[in-house]
Amino acid sequence: MVTYAYAADTSVTSDRSRAEIERTITRYGAQQFAYGWDHGHALVGFKMRDRQVRFALPLPDRQSKAFTRTPTGRGRTTVQANAAYEQAVRQRWRALALVIKAKLEAVQTGIVTFEQEFAMHMVMPDGSTVADHVLPAIEQAYATGTVPPLLALGS
Question: CA 22, CA 24: separation in Å to the nearest integer?
Answer without folding.
Answer: 5
